Amino acid sequence: MTRLTLKPHPAVTSSAMSHNRYQITLANGEGWLLSSVPELSSWLDRFARIMGLEPCTAPSVCHHLHFATQKPPADWKYDDLRSVTFWYHPEKNDIHCEMEPPDDVTDVLAHIKMSQSLFFIFNSALLHGGMPLHAALLEYEGKAVAIAAPGGTGKTTCAGRVPAPWRALADDLCLVVPDPSGGYAIHPLPTWSRFFYGEPCDDRWTVEQNVLLHGIFFLEQAESDGVVPVGTGEAAAGIAGAADQMMRIFYRRMETDRGRALRRQVFENACGMAGSMPAYKLRATLDGRFWEEIEAVL
Q1: How much is the pTM?
Q2: Distance between CA atoms of 63 and 34, rounded to whole angstroms?
Q3: Positive or negative CA dihedral for 185, 3, 132, 230?
């Protein structure tokens, strides 16, 4: 994969770039430098803390996601997501994210802006064969599994019940990218809903952490625990559905053609993943030992 060279656009001054910077590096080699204007520095610091990112003084070659309060030059295109507006240019590697400074970096709106700010990282993953998933991420002896299901149907419960040596790295959202080994790696993402209810939350995720993905499990509530393999077509539909649950907020804010193109890319990537990734139905009870069923197929 060719990594793109950072080329700051005219709207980013040297003083703005040096104020505070953080970097995300994904398993496929894609890197993103996050920076902001001073008015958004406290917001970016909190965003980076939730994502488990450390300050970056010497960024490697990567894309640039710059948070600002003003628009870039007039020849840039944009996606308006209401809370944030993304500006991009076909001849540049930079993404300019325009937003109003939040009154309180710990309030609901501030965290909504954070969750939506990941859109162009998701978009980049899609362009390289990956995708975000609405799924829990569990690790067992160096092997990762994704447990996909709609909200409120048991992902968090499953993540909270697994015993050692199992580890729950995320209970709601994750990002899958192709790994140089030929398989797929998976990164944990924050559970943004924890910040949306007005209660204090100091949770933190290590987003740069990744594990090789060894299977996708579609969760079903059942009277007995069990694992059932699913065919490629059913797996592709399930993977695309798990991605669409995360992407739909972006689809509905975009022009029809752009949203349709994103949906098509999600489905194509889901088909590719389903062709090379084991997939199963995971039938789980409230008090059973479902993880042993997963261990048996790993």
Answers
A1: 0.90
A2: 9
A3: negative
pLDDT digits 0-9 by tens, 269-281 = 999 999 999 999 9
Q: How many CB atoms lie within 10 A of CB 60?
A: 12
With a CB cutoff of 8 Å and minimum separation 6, the contacts of 37 are 16, 19, 67, 68, 69
| Per-residue model confidence as pLDDT tens digits over 224-233 | 999 999 999 9
- State the DSSP string of 253-295: TS-HHHHHHHHHHHHHHHHHHHTTS-EEEEEE-SSS-HHHHHH
Average confidence (pLDDT) over 201-217: 93
Angle at the Cα of 109 from the Cα atoms of 103 and 115, rounded to 5 degrees: 130
User: Can you give the pLDDT at residue 261?
Assistant: 92
Read off φ and ψ for residue 96, nearest 5 degrees: -110, 115
User: What is the pLDDT at residue 61?
Assistant: 65
Q: pLDDT grade, residue 66 (50/70/90)?
A: very high
Residue 9 has what pLDDT? 33
With contact defined as beta carbons under 8 Å apart, do 278 and 215 qualify?
A: yes
Cα separation of 98 and 245, whole Å?
A: 25
CA distances from 256 to 77, 182, 242 (A): 15, 34, 21
Residue 176 backbone dihedrals phi, psi, to 5 degrees = -105, 135
Q: Round to whole Å and give the CA distance between 83 and 192.
A: 15
Whole-angstrom distance, CA of residue 289 vs CA of residue 34 = 41
Is pLDDT larger for residue 57 or for residue 47? 47
Cα distance between residue 298 and residue 164, in whole Å: 16
Cα separation, 36 vs 242, whole angstroms: 31
Pair type for strands 184-189 and 173-178: antiparallel
- Residue pair 218/230 in contact (Cβ under 8 Å)? The answer is yes
